[in-house]
From TrEMBL:
Residue ranges annotated for the DNA-directed RNA polymerase III subunit RPC5 C-terminal domain, each copy included: 444-690
Species this protein is from: Mohoua ochrocephala
Coiled-coil ranges per UniProt: 466-493
Pfam family, one: RPC5
Region feature (Disordered): 146-169
Basic and acidic residues composition bias: residue spans: 146-155
Cellular component aspect of the GO annotation: RNA polymerase III complex
UniProt keyword annotation of Coiled coil present: yes
Gene name per UniProt: Polr3e
Keywords attached to this entry: Coiled coil
Protein name listed in UniProt: RPC5 polymerase
Domain of life: Eukaryota
A Gene Ontology BP annotation from the UniProt entry: tRNA transcription by RNA polymerase III
């Protein structure tokens, strides 16, 4: 009451609602005006509008005689846009930037709360606004200047190109017939951004007549901002009771679905989400996230949510896999839908995805080829299944994306038991549909179901290896003494070799056999550390081979290196090791090359066969591995391209990236031959990779 007494009412003003310009009145918001342009008396050269989109485009003249106008910049802009020639299509016919285009955008989607007010003789007249448009400068003339600049560059390049490059290449054309468009595909196409942009571009501009501020027509139209009659019949909407007036000022929070902006299907508003029932909240969250621990789900639902109710609802839309909740297949693929990749119906997709989920209940790893072979689905569908719940690991397969949630399993054993019964039912259905074999039904590792995945660092592995070597050292020495005793009983030729065998203690950080495990795992040929487990090679003693075996290994390795570099003249160490692993996979068990070949042995053999290391100056910020930076090339192959190859290698030893014309000029100078484009391509193809 004290505040009301301190703030007395000074004047009461009658408010009237004008309807003459209803759904016709727009508010234009202009940017800050430059000194050379005043909107009050500016000359509007043209105006046009797209009524459906409420989009306006105005073209206004700029006062080029104003002292604040920079004439040199205006001439430069006009020259960049139109060039030196002027015709009817020129943007600036006066060779000076003398006009500016403004394009509008909607400032607010809902303008029902805004009105234009006019105060006259103690009366306030309100006219509701139909739209609020913000006008911003349009820089389409810069796009036109860039287009002309690109045309000039293309013309210059076309004029300088040689006759050989101007020859038209014969290209093969593939004709494809599109399939009939489904209803789902048509709806996606209609809702796409490209389609909406096309629809907006198809709407024609409606040209308008602009009338100035002091024009008689403008004066006449401004009279419509006043209420034409002051009777009660026209202003009944302004006569409200106090309660109705308060309700208008503070309306209840009612969600207006029509006014909500359309958001992508994978984007959620947490404020809108929490207004839905609990079951719908959980379904939307699981459908978007797909895999989630129970603790994360509770944190998204907000404080005060009953965990028992959440458990009851989540079991309706998700299944338990390794202690985490994975959304059910029928939630992602509802009935009467199909695959966007292959058109397979939803029932088949659900069975295939259930098989992937079931495999993850048995093991942390799943092989994509195995899933495709069992489900008979296209690779794109199988990849979608795996990406929903796992992460790809190189040379290993797909690993379940979340760790085993042991806390949830311990806290809710009844839920776990119920989910296991559900999986037994799903497994029975999958056995009937896919005719699963025993190898599909038995898990690879029982430990994966009840324990965390073991993560061991490199330092821990080194320590474990050192401890294992110390434990086995005594046993190896006993076996060596036993082998010596057996060798003494052989013929005299064998006796001469046995005394040469010594136990040599080498540090663990010394030269080790070349690591081929990363490649051999991908070959699936049963190699373990370069050896066949069933039948080994001649047994080395502490990593050292007998003298005769070393010679055989060197001969075999030299034959492999020579044949490889005769086929491919330039190789990196990484590529050479990959080819060597493929060669090992093709050899029978017990071959001499399985004795273990180190990187140093392989590189020394490459140099012994007449190859040279090319020190290519790769950039320091390159992401290549050290093995990929070591480049070896065959220097002399005994063919007609030896000289060309040597010139090329000298060029690449100075720069890792060279233009074709530089190579052609250098070859012509060094070899004394005038090589054309086809001959240079042949030299690059035969000698090295371009």
């Amino acid at each position: 009451m004290a505040n009301e007494e301190d703030d007395p009412i000074i004047q009461e003003i009658d408010v009237f609602l004008a309807r003459s310009l209803l759904e016709k009145l727009y508010l234009f918001q202009y940017p800050i005006r430059p000194a050379s342009m005043t909107y009050d008396d500016v000359t509007h050269l043209s105006a046009k509008i797209k009524p459906k989109q409420q989009k306006v485009e105005l073209e206004m003249a700029i006062d080029t005689l104003n002292p604040n106008y920079c004439r040199s910049k205006g001439e430069q802009i006009a020259l960049n846009v139109d060039g030196t020639c002027t015709d009817e299509t020129s943007t600036y016919s006066s060779k000076l930037m003398d006009k500016q285009t403004f394009c509008s955008s909607q400032a607010a989607s809902n303008v029902s709360r805004y009105a234009a007010a006019v105060y006259k003789k103690g009366e306030l007249h309100l006219t509701p606004l139909h739209g609020i448009l913000q006008l911003r400068p349009s820089f389409t003339y810069l796009d036109k200047a860039d287009a002309k600049h690109r045309e000039r560059e293309a013309a210059n390049e076309g004029g300088d190109s040689s006759q050989d490059e101007a020859e038209d290449d014969v290209k093969q054309i593939t004709v494809r017939f599109s399939r009939p468009e489904t209803e789902q595909a048509r709806q996606r196409r209609v809702q796409s951004y490209e389609f909406l942009q096309k629809r907006q571009a198809e709407e024609h501009w409606v040209h308008l007549h602009y009338y100035g501020l002091k024009d008689s027509r403008s004066e006449h139209e401004r009279q419509y901002l006043f209420s034409q009659g002051h009777g009660l019949a026209e202003n009944t909407e302004l006569i409200k009771s106090p309660s109705e007036y308060l309700m208008m000022l503070m309306p209840p929070s009612v969600e207006e679905e029509n006014d909500k902006p359309m958001a992508p299907s994978n984007v959620l508003s947490m404020a809108q989400l929490r207004t839905l029932p609990l079951a719908d909240q959980i379904k939307i969250l699981m459908k978007n996230v797909k895999v989630m621990p129970f603790a994360n789900l509770m944190s998204l639902l907000g404080s005060g949510t009953d965990p028992t109710a959440v458990l009851r609802c989540v079991q309706q839309v998700a299944l338990l896999v390794q202690g985490n909740w994975v959304v059910k297949s029928d939630v992602l693929y509802p009935k009467d839908t199909s695959s966007p990749h292959s058109g397979v119906p939803a029932e088949v997709l659900c069975r295939g995805r259930d098989f992937v989920m079931w495999k993850f209940t048995q093991d942390r790893w799943v092989v994509r080829k195995e899933v495709a072979a069992v489900t008979k689905l296209c690779p794109e569908d199988v990849k979608d299944f795996l990406e929903h719940m796992s992460v790809a690991r190189i040379n290993k397969g797909w690993e379940f994306m979340l760790p085993y949630d042991e806390d949830f399993v311990k806290k809710h054993p009844d839920i776990v038991q119920r989910q296991q019964m559900l999986w037994m039912g799903i497994q029975a259905k999958l056995e009937k549909v896919y005719n699963l074999l025993k190898e599909h039904l038995t898990p690879k590792k029982q430990e994966a179901q009840s324990a965390h995945p073991l993560l061991v660092s490199g330092e821990q592995r080194v320590n474990m290896a050192k401890a294992k070597v110390k434990q086995n050292y005594g046993q190896l020495e006993k076996e060596l003494q036993k082998q010596k005793a057996e060798m003494k009983s052989h013929d005299a030729s064998a006796k001469t070799d046995v005394p040469n065998i010594r136990i040599k203690e080498e540090p663990l950080s010394g030269e080790e056999p070349m690591d081929t495990s990363a490649h051999s795992e991908g070959l699936n040929n049963g190699l373990v550390n370069g050896l066949h487990p069933a039948q080994g090679s001649p047994d080395p003693v502490n990593g050292h081979l007998p003298g005769g075996c070393i010679d055989r290994v060197a001969q075999e390795l030299k034959a492999f290196v020579s044949s490889t570099f005769k086929k491919q003249f330039v190789l990196t160490l990484s590529e050479l090791k990959r080819l060597f692993n493929l060669h090992l996979a093709s050899l029978p068990p017990g071959h001499t090359l399985f004795s273990g070949i180190s990187d140093k042995m392989l590189q020394d053999m490459v140099l012994d066969t007449g190859c040279k290391q090319i020190l290519v100056p790769f950039p320091p910020q390159t992401a290549a591995s050290p093995d990929e930076l070591k480049v070896y090339a065959l220097w002399e192959a005994g063919d007609t391209y030896d000289q060309h190859r040597q010139v090329l290698l000298e060029i690449f030893s100075k720069n890792y990236r060279v233009r074709r014309n530089v190579i052609q000029n250098q070859l012509s100078q060094e070899c004394g031959e005038d090589l054309n484009k086809q001959e240079v391509d042949r030299v690059l193809k035969v000698s090295c990779c371009s």
